[in-house]
Model the fold of this input.
Amino acid sequence: MALALHLWARLHGLVSLEIYGHLRTQTISPDKLFREELTQLIRSLGLTPKGGRPS
Done:
């Protein structure tokens, strides 16, 4: 349950920042930031992202 809440909180926070336009002032490439965040979440589960490099 704790893992599910952790993953949900990170994704929810990032999506909320994007929806309300706060990422545009922080980065010129919000899509790259989102992909990197997903990659890190997948790696935190001990998995290798599709097409990604093992860490």
Summary: The first helix runs from residue 2 to 19. Residues 2-44 form one domain. Residues 11 and 38 are 8 Å apart (CA to CA). The chain has one domain: 2-44.
